[in-house]
């Protein structure tokens, strides 16, 4: 049976992952408006990944005999000044998620739940990858500046991203 404090921390993180899904769906809508279909594809994959992250924890809490209680999902922003500003927020958000995963692991550590720590290891590694991917796109956007042709080239590259259902835990 999962410890009550840890169960609460997992429920908080499920909410954060669902918020991430919602935020990236809002960003997807922004790129639809810009007609940048490669970016739209990138966010389509990102949205699926965030849903998978939330469901991984949702299933884990149940597997451990705990109770999932869904909370209200905050309204995300709906507009950005530029693709660059949007990706600056993506990186900032992922860094925040990393800090929350670390905090969740601190709770698992505090209640000496080694099984949960081992489960959460996957999320920690995933965050390193997420920050690295986003950082890569952000660096390219900084180089691109106001060059529309270069932006379209990046859009083509982002169109190739595909979703691979993760095996979590
Ligand atoms: Fe679920 Fe992008 O962290």
Provide a descriptive summary of the structure in words:
- The chain is mainly α.
- The protein has a single domain, classed as Ferritin, core subunit, four-helix bundle (Ferritin, Up-down Bundle), CATH 1.20.1260.
- Helices cover 76% and strands 0% of the residues.
- It has helices spanning 4-34, 37-63, 83-110, 114-144, 148-158.
- The chain is elongated, with a radius of gyration of 17 Å.
- The two termini are 18 Å apart.
Contiguous helical run count: 5
The helix/strand series, from N terminus to C terminus, equals: HHHHH
Rounded mean pLDDT is: 98
Query: Can you identify the CATH class?
Result: Mainly Alpha
- The first-to-last residue Cα distance is 18 Å
CATH topology: Ferritin
Q: Radius of gyration from the CA trace?
A: 17 Å
Instruction: Give the name of the CATH superfamily.
Output: Ferritin, core subunit, four-helix bundle
Number of domains: 1
What proportion of the residues form beta strands (DSSP E)? under 5%
At CATH level 2, the architecture is Up-down Bundle
- Report the bound ligands by name, code or SMILES: MU-OXO-diiron
Number of strand segments: 0
Largest sheet features: none
Basic shape: elongated
Q: What fraction, in percent, of the residue positions are helical?
A: over 70%
Structural class of the helix and strand makeup? mainly alpha
Unreliable runs: none
